Structures are given as C-alpha cells and as structure tokens.
Amino acid sequence: MWRIGTRGSALALAQAHEVRDRLMAATGLAQDRFEIVVMSTSGDRIQDRPLAEVGGKGLFTKEIEDALEERTIDLAVHSSKDMPTILPDGLILSAFLPREDVRDAFISRKAKTLAELPPGSVVGTASLRRQAMVKRLRPDLAVVNYRGNVQTRLRKLDEGVVDATLLAYAGLKRLGLDHEIASLIPAEDFLPAVGQGAICIETKADEREVNELVGLIHHPETAAALICERAFLRELDGSCRTPIAGLATVDGERLQFRGLILRPDGQQAHAISAEGEPERAAAIGREAGEALRIRGGADFFASLGV
Ligand SMILES: NCc1[nH]cc(CCC(=O)O)c1CC(=O)O
C-alpha cells in the first residue's frame, strides 16, 4: 500500500488523484494499492488574514512534511508554486509531472481582458505578484486583497464585490472550471509565479523504493525548468512578501529563462533573461537571481522588509 499525502482543498485532491492515476497507469497496480491521506495544514486553518501577513515559509507543507518524516505517508503531492525553496533535511522533490499551461487566467463578468476593464474597476487577488503586475499594467485600477477558495472568489465576482480576478489556468483546468475564464494572459506580459502549473512529489531521500516508483512518472524537462526557477527564487530569498516572477522553458537542448522582480506598487521592475543547456538549470537560475539582486540594489529588497 502506497500512502499519498495531500491537503484537502478541491485543487489538492484533484492533483493527488492525478498522481495516483498516473502511478496506476505506470505500474499496473490496482487502485486499492494506493491510499489518499488528507491532511490539514496551518495555511488551510488560517482564513482570516492575508497569507503574506502571516509570513513564515511552508505554511501549506509543514504538517505534510512531518508525516513524511514520521513515515505515516510515503509521498506527498504539492503545487510546486507553494513549495518553499529550501526543504527540511532528508526530504527531496523526487518527481515533477509534465507541466500544465503556465499562464494566468483573467476572470471577469465585465470585460474580456485586463486591458478592456473600465478605469477604476476593482481587481481582487491575494497574490503580491499579481497585485504588482496589475498595478504596473493598469495603474488606474483598484487592487484589493482577496482570499478564499476558487468557488468563493467566483461568487464574489457574481455579487459584484470585485470586477475581476486572476487565477492560474492550471488550477482552474484541474477543477474543471475553464469555462469561467474570460481570457488567458500572455506569459510575456504577465510572467507567472515560479513553479506555476507544475505538480511535484516530495519524498524522503533515503526511501529507495518510493523514489523508484515516482521516477516512473517523472518528467525531466519540467524538472529542469523547475530547478532553474527555484534556484532563481532561492537566490532572491523569495519570501511571500516579495513580488517575484520567473519562467523557464525547455526545448530540446535549450533552456530559456525569464525573471522579474517588482515593487509592490508596480512602479519599478527589473527583468532578466538567460539561456543555456538544461544541465546547467540550477546555475542559470542562480546567476539570474544574483544579477537581479545586484541590479535591484539593497534598497529594492529592504523596502519590502525581507
Ligand atoms: N497559491 C495557491 C495555488 N497554488 C497552485 C495554484 C494553481 C495550480 C498551479 O499553479 O499548479 C494555486 C491557485 C492559483 O494561483 O490560482
């Protein structure tokens, strides 16, 4: 019996089921050889404050990682985007599934695109990256903090609490909610978060059997992209308070990376691009992070309180 640990949100469950289904297909094992173990994390329990305010890394992973260490689960399924860049000793991201479309989706009952929203419209999003990007592209809009699960957010749109919101296409697709999308925002205009659209599997580094198992559904190109993006984020010491975006794509023997840091008000931004062989993924990401750190200068990050 393989025990798959996951959070209990609809998105987390959909992702855990996808991993189980892929493992069944790759191994020929029956469904009853897998157990999906639903766990609650501090991030799930804290509903009354913006997450950026609560701070602390690993809000959505701590309890699940404890279970891996205690061997009450064998593998954990996560959204790569929610994973801290530094894992507890002895734990590794041992597999990445083929990445979904990385773009952010624009959702509104009032306009087809962000550009078409009437001046003064209210955009709700909890993501500092999306807040900063919206302010950068449309300084005339009002941006408000907006938490809650996807269903709650869609209801607030219907009730007119906000005029538009932005969510990862990948999550909406996995929830079967793609029909809610007004348009997809080109990644060139609106660089996604590091890890967006990629499901990853975390295990204990020394558990050979489970690491062989998840190796069967591992996607090396996604892994190279994620290694690059995570090295970038780690170099910038990305906390939840820092608007940072980064995207690596791998095409055969070429890895291309683009990164962006912004001030929360969107008034200032620094972008970088780099490329090289996928084998150098970590170095490419780290060097890009270093370069942006220098270009931003100490002030840039100091003003963010990180
Ligand atoms: N921060 C929450 C979160 N973590 C992963 C996804 C979407 C799925 C993904 O990026 O793989 C979402 C929701 C969102 O940003 O819309």
Topology of helices and strands:
Elements lengths: L1 E6 L2 H18 L6 E6 L2 H4 L5 H4 L7 H8 L5 E5 L11 E6 L7 E5 L13 E3 L3 H10 L4 E3 L5 H9 L5 E5 H6 L8 E2 L14 E6 L3 H8 L4 H16 L8 E8 L2 E9 L6 E8 L4 H22 L4
Parallel strand pairs: 1-2, 1-3, 6-7, 6-8
Antiparallel strand pairs: 3-10, 4-10, 5-8, 5-9, 11-12, 12-13
The structure holds ligand PBG.
Pathway: Porphyrin-containing compound metabolism; protoporphyrin-IX biosynthesis; coproporphyrinogen-III from 5-aminolevulinate: step 2/4
Cofactor: dipyrromethane
Catalytic activity: 4 porphobilinogen + H2O = hydroxymethylbilane + 4 NH4(+)
Q: How would you describe the overall organization of this protein?
A:
With 306 residues, the protein is of the alpha/beta class. It has 3 domains: 117 residues, Periplasmic binding protein-like II (D-Maltodextrin-Binding Protein, domain 2, 3-Layer(aba) Sandwich); 81 residues, D-Maltodextrin-Binding Protein, domain 2 (3-Layer(aba) Sandwich); 88 residues, Double Stranded RNA Binding Domain (2-Layer Sandwich). The protein contains 10 helices and 13 strands. The strands form 3 sheets. A 5-stranded mixed beta sheet has the order 2-1-3-10-4, sandwiched between helices. A hairpin with a 2-residue loop joins β11 and β12. The chain starts with a strand and ends with a helix. The relative contact order is 0.15. The structure holds the ligand NCc1[nH]cc(CCC(=O)O)c1CC(=O)O. The ligand NCc1[nH]cc(CCC(=O)O)c1CC(=O)O binds next to β8 and α7. The site of ligand PBG has 9 residues, from β8 and α7.
What are the salient characteristics of this protein?
single chain, D-Maltodextrin-Binding Protein, domain 2, 3 domains, five-stranded mixed β-sheet, 13 strands, 34% helix, binds the ligand NCc1[nH]cc(CCC(=O)O)c1CC(=O)O
